[in-house]
């Protein structure tokens, strides 16, 4: 097996309802793979990424830069009425607006299975 060209891409393993484990790479939406165990899924994903990178290298297609430095901060604009509702909810719960919004986002992602 050839040495990995650029192994620092984020890999997301997603358990499916049927017991299968799907894997995706946010930087490479075209890679679709997985396995019947988490270990097999990761092994198959690494192999799929390696083949993709080798093909891109051979065809002189530039690799996307890995998205690595997440600060934990981002700005979002919301309607004033939603801002007011969020601030009121945070106050009622005795938490910061950041804590409330973070909790709501995590709950939403968990509900959607991400």
Could you describe the 3D structure shown?
The protein is α+β, with helices and mostly antiparallel strands. It folds into 2 domains: 1-70, Double Stranded RNA Binding Domain (2-Layer Sandwich); 80-111. Helices cover 44% and strands 15% of the residues. It is built from 3 helices and 3 strands, in the order βββααα. Strands 1-2-3 form a 3-stranded antiparallel β-sheet, with helices on one face. The two termini are 32 Å apart.
Offer a concise description of the structure.
This protein has 114 residues and is of the alpha+beta class. It has helices spanning 38-58, 80-93, 97-111; strands spanning 12-15, 21-25, 28-35.
CATH topology descriptor of the largest domain = Double Stranded RNA Binding Domain
**In angstroms, what is the radius of gyration?**
19 Å
User: What's the total helix number?
Assistant: 3
Amount of helix:
40-55%
- The CATH first-level class of the largest domain comes to Alpha Beta
Strand content: 5-15%
- Chain-averaged pLDDT: 87
Q: How many beta-strand segments?
A: 3
- For the record, the CATH architecture of the largest domain stands as 2-Layer Sandwich
Helix and strand pattern: EEEHHH
Q: Could you say which structural class the secondary elements and strand pairing correspond to? A: alpha+beta
Q: What are the low-pLDDT stretches, counting only 5+ consecutive residues below 50? A: 1-6
Q: Termini, distance in Å?
A: 32 Å
Main pleated-sheet profile: 3 strands, antiparallel
Strand order of the largest sheet: 1-2-3
Shape: elongated
């Amino acid at each position: 097996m050839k040495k990995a060209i650029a192994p620092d891409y984020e890999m997301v393993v997603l358990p499916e309802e049927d017991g299968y484990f799907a894997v995706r790479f946010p930087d490479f939406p075209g890679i679709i793979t997985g396995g019947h165990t988490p270990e097999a899924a990761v092994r198959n994903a690494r192999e799929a990424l390696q083949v993709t990178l080798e093909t891109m290298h051979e065809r002189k297609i530039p690799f996307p830069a890995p998205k690595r430095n997440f600060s934990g901060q981002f700005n979002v604009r919301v309607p004033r009425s939603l801002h007011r509702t969020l601030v009121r909810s945070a106050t009622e719960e005795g938490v910061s607006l950041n804590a409330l919004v973070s909790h709501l986002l995590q709950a939403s992602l968990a509900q959607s299975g991400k």
